[in-house]
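Support request, please re-run this one:
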Amino acid sequence: MWFLRCDLVHCFPGFQARQGQCLALRSIPMKELLRSTDPTVLAFASALLEGEDIDCFQMDVNMSILEGGIGIFPRRLMVRAADYDLALRAMRDNDIPLGQAT
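Re-run finished. Output below.
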């Protein structure tokens, strides 16, 4: 089991702790919502999901930075498995291309 220091809790959305307490981290099942090499699509999708109170996480950001910004490696946007259907509906309602994720 992993423990998170209380002074680092502010880095993770949805986690709150009282001073002097530590949180046990657990894995949360996530699903890939979209895949894109366009950072503007990812930023727009993240903003839409935030407006719907759906937590999301961008994966492969560091790999994208290592390739020099030429757009070879796509970034993935992940959401909780429980929020996937709602997030998918938000993406389709706003005509955001999902890439290979569907």
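Residues 1-13 have pLDDT under 50 and may be disordered. The first strand starts at residue 2 and ends at 4.
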